[in-house]
Amino acid sequence: MRMVKMKPKSMDLETAMQKFLLVKESQHTGEETMKDYRNCLARFLADSHNSLDYPLLKSDVLTFFAAIPDTSPARYNKPFQTINAFLNWALEQELIGKNPIKVHKLHKRRDDGNIKPLPVDKLQAFLASLDKSTYTGLRDYVICMQCSSTKESRRRSDWQSSTPLPSAR
Length: 169
Prior knowledge:
Blueprint: H1 13-26, H2 31-46, H3 54-66, H4 73-92, H5 100-103, H6 120-129, H7 135-147, H8 152-161
């Protein structure tokens, strides 16, 4: 009798995602991370062809990331992390041949933060509010002066005119 090897039925994207989530739960991934995984993967699945076939998956990934508005790096980076983790897992499990994110050299967006300069009057008011008669107040004052690009001569004159060092209690 001749043995015929049956080709295993290919898994769809939704089933693979469910298995991925199960693996992450069994690894005791944090509650917030699991919530992020579920939400992001559900959004990706809703816009996809529900297939692990590489040409369709590649198209789905590129379309998904192209549709993310360019409002902030975090809005892009969170789904990037989630989908990349899923695709790396699928690659590890040999469900896909290659990760479309790596093939197309997609990267996380750099987050320079939203740093705004502090007006001088507000900085002066803050520095004046620090209690320089205590160790912690004086320490905070010195750190703020150093971090605010205050000129050394200004720091030195403020130091000399400040109250004497507090005694240790």
